[in-house]
Amino acid sequence: MATPLQMHPMSREVVVKITVQNGRIVLSQDPFYVSKGANEEVKWVAGEGVEDFLVEFGEDSPFYEKQFSNYAPFSGLVRRNVQPHDGKTYKYTVWVGELSLDPTGGVKR
Q1: pTM
Q2: Residues 27, 18: contact at Cβ < 8 Å?
Q3: Which residue has the higher pLDDT, 70 or 9?
Q4: Where do the domains of the chain lie?
Q5: Which residues share a beta bridge with 89?
Q6: Spatial CB neighbours of 98, under 8 Å, sequence gap ≥ 6
Q7: CATH 2.60.40 is held by the domain 13-108
Q8: Separation of alpha carbons 26 and 47, rounded Å
Q9: How many whole angstroms separate alpha carbon 33 and alpha carbon 106?
Q10: How many CA atoms lie within 13 A of 94 on its CB side?
């Protein structure tokens, strides 16, 4: 009798942890990169010193939505019309209270 194939799901989450250290926002990945081909999405999570956060992309967001927070932390999939590009990055702003940071992210194959 054949042994059933055991599948181990691969994570599709690219986790970006947001912390505050010495009065400054620090991210675990800056820039972040998501794979369009692997259907990856970003999950922003609150780390040490952070309760609430807000993430906002300008008009040039690689995702269908432009605003994320600790209440809605998943980016969702990369928009269909966004092509993977090694050199292109997307600027966004992270807010923790009055503190802000302008990191970037990109889309790879």
Answers
A1: 0.89
A2: yes
A3: 70
A4: 13-108
A5: none
A6: none
A7: yes
A8: 10
A9: 5
A10: 28
